[in-house]
Amino acid sequence: MKVFEAARLLGTTPRTLRFYEEKGLVTPAKARENGYRLYSEADIERLRWIIALRELGMPLAAIGEVLQTVHQHDDFLRLADRARALLYEEWVAAGQKLQALDDTIAKWRRQAQPGIGAAEDAAEMMKHSRFQRSSWNDRWDYDRLALEHGEAAPLAALAKVLTPTGYEHALIKTLEWIDPIAGEYGAELGAGTGNLSVKLAEAGVRLTAIEQSAQMLSILRGRLPHVEAKLGNLLTLPLPDRVCSFIACSFAMHHLNSSQQLLALAEMDRILLPGGRMAITDISEDSEAAAGSFKSAAAGQPLAAAIEPFRLHELQNWLKSHRYSIVLEHLDAAAVMLFAVKPE
User: Fold this and answer.
1) φ, ψ for residue 150 (rounded to 5)?
2) Under 8 Å between Cβ of 110 and 255
């Protein structure tokens, strides 16, 4: 099939098909006598994939990787997950830019003459937010931990600061404060291998579990095949605005620095319904175990053993400024839980 025939069949243009060829996504044969492109049935099938994935917002680079794994189910889904997470990052960033522009225009309306200062302030805020989101990386190598420890990987990462008994107690208390209602929709953030997800699912909720480690997510999906599980991190949650009745987050905030923790809190606020509740459980920065870990990180010891301070006071101040009702409970010598209810 020649290029014009292929383009007509696929509902696109010859120029588009040549562009995909230039990008290395498809390599049609060429007739010896005249050099015309000849598209086989396999080429057409591949182009159908390319066109469909482009319409779904997947970038060309990601499409190239995904198409290499079409017949490798797990790898295909892993790459599709990653592409979706990146697309959500773009969507969240676009929403923030729009809000920042709206706020700036509102300031200009109150001014006799629009000033550059308002635009520069908003631009600096967006620049800072973009830097914090792009600078996060998995210094703890959770994919490796998942391969080595399986379901126990989250506890293995916390072994120097939390006992198995303390870990289980913290999950139970988080569940009690969330007080899930059968049928309601909520999200677990930094879900790991699903240790808290199992407890939430047993309560009969409709749950989306979000985790940044592909290997941990694979274990969670194996344990809870009926729970929706998405690849993503706390800085750009792959969920629409105002959809969750509750949010649970256990031992994930300490992977973020102070600014990133506030960004994560803003993301939680974005997806939480009015009247919704959130429970954030983590290592208390006041505990001796956590303090020793912070000192180890500062001294340049392996980052896999280090955690960041859980910025309780900053998080509480943010929540209060947004009119949340707050309860703080110290679960034991190491763990603390921050529970908050969003205003109606």
Assistant:
1) 60, -135
2) no
165: three-class secondary structure by DSSP: helix
Q: Is 26 found in the same domain as 8?
A: yes
- Specify the CATH number for the domain of residue 34: 1.10.1660.10
Residue 139's pLDDT band, with cuts at 50, 70 and 90, is confident
Within 8 A by CB and 6+ apart from 227, the residues are 194, 197, 201, 207, 208, 209, 220, 221
pLDDT-above-90 percentage for the chain? 67
Please report the pLDDT score of residue 304 as a whole number.
Answer: 40
Q: Check: CB of residue 247 under 8 Å from CB of residue 271.
A: yes
- Asked if 318 and 262 touch (Cβ cutoff 8 Å), the reply is yes
pLDDT value at residue 204: 96
CB contact set of 98 (below 8 Å; sequence gap of 6+): none
250: left (phi over 0), alpha (psi -120 to 50) or beta: beta
Q: Is 301 helix (H, G, I), strand (E, B) or coil?
A: coil
pLDDT band at 32 (very low <50, low <70, confident <90, very high): confident
| Last residue within a domain, chosen from 34, 67, 100 | 67
What does the block give as tokens for 161?
């600061």
